[in-house]
């Protein structure tokens, strides 16, 4: 329905360095959502969902293509748009991506993670472009994990008419409180929805992923939260009119003063 978007995020259990096992569980969970929830417009899966723990030197072109074709098949089987966190090997190296697959085989959006975190800066190729796409008249800006810590990115989306942030992530403890803060801050400061999907549970070497995939409304209030549950999902309807209403009562975007900030930002020594 125009002006409304029924979204789901799946908090799925994954196995380190076992793409085949992860494919099986992802397909099972995707079909569960499709069969139990009618008219879902978009299903989110977390960052590098299938490839978690796979050594990048072993992630070759054949695996990259296989992952891509798998996600295309999931969109076709469910009859639903899928936003999938994935890795892609290209000529210049491996990219950390969030790709939106339509049931008819089209790619609606393809975003590469811009802000790489810690050791990712040595192993992955950073993205260079913001990506926003539209479903049912709702404009959606894509972010991946560490992108969340940069309010400049979500603000750039918001001033260009974005109604909803779609965030796919693999956020870890001990920064669980920061994860919640980023969800609420990015939505409230821009007066838009934030829909997130994070990995949950053990990820090797003592690392524990936060989970807490959630939806925040344009007021920054949490209206859906999966906490630390595994192999589960939420479904939430996004309303364009709620964003428009919030922009009228809290005019953060209207009151912006970029004429004052721009020169100050230029003085920063970017690496």
What does this protein look like?
By secondary structure, this protein is an alpha/beta fold. It has one domain (4-266): 4-Layer Sandwich (Nitrilase/N-carbamoyl-D-aminoacid amidohydrolase). It contains seven helices and 14 strands. The chain has helices at 19-36, 61-78, 120-123, 151-159, 176-188, 240-249, 258-266, and strands at 4-11, 42-44, 81-90, 93-101, 107-112, 132-135, 138-144, 164-169, 193-198, 200-202, 208-210, 214-216, 222-225, 232-239. The strands form three sheets. It has a six-stranded mixed β-sheet. α1 (19-36) packs parallel to α2 (61-78).
Instruction: Spell the H/E element sequence.
Output: EHEHEEEHEEHEHEEEEEEHH
Identify the strand order in the major beta sheet: 5-4-3-2-1-14
The CATH homologous superfamily corresponds to Carbon-nitrogen hydrolase
Distance between the termini: 44 Å
- The helix content is 25-40%
Most strands sheet:
6 strands, mixed
DSSP, total strands: 14
Query: Helix- and strand-based class?
Result: alpha/beta
Shape verdict: globular
CATH topology: Nitrilase/N-carbamoyl-D-aminoacid amidohydrolase
Give the arrangement of secondary structure elements:
Blueprint: E1 4-11, H1 19-36, E2 42-44, H2 61-78, E3 81-90, E4 93-101, E5 107-112, H3 120-123, E6 132-135, E7 138-144, H4 151-159, E8 164-169, H5 176-188, E9 193-198, E10 200-202, E11 208-210, E12 214-216, E13 222-225, E14 232-239, H6 240-249, H7 258-266
Parallel strand pairs: 1-2, 2-3, 7-8, 8-9
Antiparallel strand pairs: 1-14, 3-4, 4-5, 6-7, 9-12, 10-11, 12-13
Helix pairs in contact: 1-2
